[in-house]
Structures are given as C-alpha cells and as structure tokens.
Amino acid sequence: DEEDGSDESFVSALFHVHEWIIESTELMAQFIALFQELSAELNARLGVCRAVGYWIRACPTHFDTSLCRLTDRLRLLAIAEGIPNVNALLDLSALPSYAWLRNVSVRNPVGRQISLSFEQWSADDISTSLSHIDYKALYRVPISELRRYCHDGNLSQAPILERSISIFNSLSNWVQCMILSKGTPMERAEVITKFISVARHLRKLNNFNTLMAVIGGVSHSNIARLSKTTSALSPDIKKELASLTQLLSTQSNFAHYRAALNETANCFRIPVMGVHLKDLIALQAKEGDIDRSRVVTRRRVLHLAHLLSFFVSFNRAPHNFPDPSVDLINTLKVSLDIRYNEDDIYHLSLKREPRTLLNFQGSAKSVVFADWASGVSSTLDPETVNKHVSAMVDAVFKHYDHDKDGCISRLEFQQIAGNFPFIDPFGAIDTDRDGQISKSEMKAYFIEVNKRSMEFRRGFKHNFHETTFLAPTSCAHCGKLLWGLIRQGFKCKDCGLAVHGCCKDSAVVECRRRSSGTLTWWSPSTNSSTHSKKLFISVR
What we know:
By secondary structure, this protein is mostly helical.
C-alpha cells in the first residue's frame, strides 16, 4: 500500500488518530509491555523508545498527566536497562502546557476598552469575539467524543461536543432574536445589514462554522418571511446575502463550501463542524466499527486523519484572530447561554409581520444548513453560569457605572438592554424599587433567567410508548419507514414524535409538550405545529 503515502505520513497519521482506535493510556501501556517482552533485543527496545519519542514530538497535546506518568515509567525502565540517550528521547520537561487549548477562558486576554451596547459594536468586534468563543469550544472537542457520538449517536456522553453544538444553535437563534427585537422594518433591516457585515468579516477570518450560524440565522424562515424587512434592504446587501447563502448551501453535498475550504488549505480556518461530523458518521456507517478486531488498514488510517483534521488541528497552530475584548466576549457568552425558544421566535416573527394571503409562504426548507442539530442545548453547571454572569455584570458596571456608586440608572440600562432580546423591563430587575439596579440585582436576574432556561431544557425528554401506526409513518430520526403490522415503533405521548425502537435513544429533537396558560419567552410555546421539527444529521 505504498501508494497511499509515505511511511512518515502514515506514522504521523496513526499517532494523531489512534484515539479513534485505542485510548492513549492503553497504547502507552502496550508500548511498556512490548518493551518488557523484548528483554534480549536492545535494538528493538530502542525502537520502542524512539516510537514514543516520535509520539511526544508529533502530538505533544496528547500528553496529559496520566500519559506523562506512564511515559516516565517507560523512561525509568529504559534507563535501568542501559538504553542510550533515553533521557533526551523521552524528555517531557520541555512540553508546552497547552493551557490555551484546555482552558475555557480566552487566550492572551487584553484590556481593550469597548462599548457594551450592540448598536455601538462594530462588525469586526462582533465577528472577532464570536470567533474566539467558537474556536475555544470547537477545538477542545476530543477525538474520543467524536468517535463515541459516531458510534451510538448519543450526545449524553459527549459533553464538550454537545456544548459546541449548543453554542452554534444559540448563536443562530440569538441572531434571529436581535433582528426581531426591533419594531420597524427599517430597524430590522439595519440589524440584518450589521450581521451581513459580521459575516463578511468571518469569511475573511476563514471562520466557516460561525459564518454558517450567522447566515443560518439571517436566512432562517423566521426572518426570510419578513417581506417588508427584506424590501428595506439595499440591493448590495441582498446580493451579498445571496452569495453567502449560496456558499453555505447544502447543494451537491456542500460543494461550494468544500471548494472554498480547499482554497484555504494552507491557512488557519474553522470548518463547519456539522458538515465534517456528517462525513465521519458516513465513514462509520460504511466501514463499520473496529472495536472488536483492532485491525485497521493504512488507507483507513489516512482517511481518518484527513476527516479528523477538520476538528483537531494536528499541529495545534494558534489562531490568527485579532486581539479580543474580554468584556465583549463575556457579554456575548451570557447572551448565548440563554435558551431562546424556537416556537416563541416564530410567533414573534408573525407578530412583527402577520401572515396575509399575499405573503403567505409554506414552510420551505432553508437553503443553509443552519439548525443542523436543532434541539441540542447543553445544560451548563451553576458554577459556569455564575462565572459567565459575574464576568458580564462586572464588565457592564466597569463601562456604564460612571459615578462608581455601584448602581446602573434607567438611562444606562437602556444602553445595554439591546444586547438581550426580550429582557424584562427596568422595574422587574430593580427589585428594591430604589430607581437603580445594583450589581447583586443584575446578577440575581440573569442567574434566574439561566436557571429557568436550564429547567426548560431538562423537559425535552420524550415519553415514548410502543405504538401501532395505522398509516405509513417515517421515523423522525433516520427517516426510514416504520415497517410491520403491529407495534411498528414508538411514539411520544407528549409531542407525537414517531421513531424506531432502535432510534428512540438517539433522537435529539425537542419534546414540545402542550401546555396551558401564558408562557414566558424561555418556555415552550403552546402551539408547536407551525413549523417542522429538525433533526441532527442522519446518514442513510
């Protein structure tokens, strides 16, 4: 199989993708066992040490505390056996910490001053901050979680991947909410124009993942149906939106996007996570699992290395984004932590521009693959929520508490309220009714909003029961027909979702329970039949 690549490229690929086949600690344990078995072969033992040394140089980010401990054990064994130059060969002291990869916070934060009002944010500032957030989330996804999801289709055991998906969906929904929060078509058109400028800058940064989330929000049916708003856009903006939509369209398996990605092969870029996860799932479905045999071909290793390189930069090259504003990032994080209900967004769209006989449109499928994992929203732990909210509130008071009395006035509140669509009025946050909002009041408000948002997310589990379907019915997860005479599949008692028995644990569509009474903006809508549910990518 020499035509598949040189030995050097194969060995490099093997070490980079080995986590798809075997745990790193298990691989190192096998190296140690092999070293001990080769008691009479000095050259073979030296070869084992050289292999591990190559691993250290090629993949330094793999070496966490556990792996370093095993490597040090091999080093001590080699020293005891008189292996030459082993200290230099297995030296771990010079390894970088790679804290910028493992730490959720932004690398090299700067104290650059910036307004925290959405109206005053520049498109460059928004795109740069969103890129830092998305980069941190995506490039922390380990190969083990990608493999686990491709194997069983369940995100519950892949929290970092789930968080990345949640950020993508939250951003797309936030874009829609920011547009719909404006009362007139001209104001909404101005927000759309601003997001098109954000998208233009994201394209320059080669951040395709965030670009798709933003364009997916702008071109979503909730926004596209607003004919008065669309007519208020300039011809140039309409043309640019059409061009970006075409770039990210699903046509011919994302042919335009893949061509653009190939043009940036030698540059830093953030690919579209959903597209390449789909490719990994297709490979898994086509070639099967390798758990049992542990036999893998050279061709598959090289193919795996290519597909995984879109998630894990093999050289772990740092990004080339401009310096961020940490305060702006903290403000955006809180906006993205809040769960924006898709049904309520749709109803707000109808409220802004009611449906008429002249502008009635069916629920046409969006050209852009925006909500590729709709319904997936990770539940942040209270400590993380408190951290995000505290950082955001501190930033707000640093910039807007001009007299440094520890309070925000009604006028100052209006300047920052635009960052959070559907935020409660000033009086609801000013709980002590003193005409000012203190730090503690603002923190308590946003923590409560996130708490209710998380309680809402926990209600997404379906109440499946085995059912006989009298009419032909397709599985909502895989799309295939539910075959059989009786009890062909399972149906959710609350929302009516129908799936195969083997698919019910993998379905990640929200359970839209019917409920009575008035619901707030973070709660499920009482009418969920107005638009179709979207699924996580499935491969047939």
